Amino acid sequence: MIINLHGFNSAGNNNTASQLRSYFPDIKVISPTYTVYNFKKGFAELSKIVSEAIESEPPERLTFVASSTGGVFAEMLARKFSAKVVLINPVTNPEILKHLLGENENYKTGEKYEFTIEDFESFNVVKHDMSVPRLVLVDTGDPVIDHAKTKVFYEGYGRYMEFEGDSHRFTFFKEGLPQIRELYNSRAR
Q1: Tell me: the pLDDT tens digits for 21-55?
Q2: Which domains does the chain have, with CATH numbers?
Q3: Cβ atoms of 88 and 173 closer than 8 Å
Q4: pLDDT at position 17, please?
């Protein structure tokens, strides 16, 4: 089972989910829309979704594939559910979300909401678990995530791959699919 976690102001019906389903027709891919702007609420929603999915159809393997802020959730969920994780242009320090405080609109769903200081502070509980088997895919020209800091942060903790581009949306996903398959099939965890 693969669970795709979207980033800030996105939704489960995204391009990453479509590509995962096309590349992995033999694997169940779940791509929920969840409250990404409040860690406590989003983590509770995702924990319930994952628990129910595992209970109804126990997977042989479980891997989270997460973009940007979704990576924060994926790391904590991978620890909770003994899973692997693929991080795409991941947020390593939620401090970068601070500029989003105030009124926001989800570009996928159209939902308008207020990203409050309480929502922002809900990310303070996040602890990165470096024992989780991982693959990190990064666009070196990402205007949101500093790829050099990301590389230092994850150095020595799983496989790290850089692609030369200029987008936070990570346009090299197809090139990373064989490595995602490799991690998914690995015996780790």
Answers
A1: 999 999 999 999 999 999 999 999 999 999 999 99
A2: 2-185 (3.40.50.1820)
A3: yes
A4: 94
Q: Are 151 and 162 in contact (CB under 8 A)?
A: yes
DSSP state of 140: T
* Cα separations in angstroms, 51 against 26, 31, 56, 122, 153: 21, 14, 9, 22, 29
Token duo for residue 116: 């409050």
Q: Count Cβ atoms below 10 Å from residue 27 Cβ, excluding itself.
A: 16
* DSSP per-residue codes, 24-53: -TTS-EE-----TT-HHHHHHHHHHHHHHH
pTM: 0.91
**Eight-class DSSP state of 186:** S
Model pLDDT, residue 143: 75
Which pair of tokens denotes residue 180? Answer: 């995602």
Residue 89 has pLDDT above 70, yes or no: yes
HEC per residue, 127-148: CCCCCCCEEEEEECCCCCCCHH
